[in-house]
Amino acid sequence: MRSFELVVKCGRCGEIIPVRVDRDHELQSIYAPDAGETDPPLEHVLCKELVGENCQNLIRFEIRFDCDHGLLGSEIKGGEFVEEEENMRASHEERAELTT
Description:
Blueprint: E1 3-10, E2 16-22, H1 23-26, E3 28-30, E4 43-51, E5 58-65, E6 71-77, E7 79-81, H2 84-99
Antiparallel strand pairs: 1-2, 1-7, 3-4, 4-5, 5-6
């Protein structure tokens, strides 16, 4: 799969924001300082900034992956990453509010 989705939650208003990431175009390859043209990258990095619809809070995050796209680490400012279970619960609560 060439893309994946992750979900962040705004640290100010609590808005749940889905983010689609295109592996081919958004990941930066990091090479060793002495790498040759045929050397593989050491890791891949995704740096992203976003603003939700409910407020103007800037959310910045960086996620580092190894060459096989396994997670090495992540940092986020202005929000938090949402686990799948929490995302589904928030979405359900949001739908319930709309129907009442």
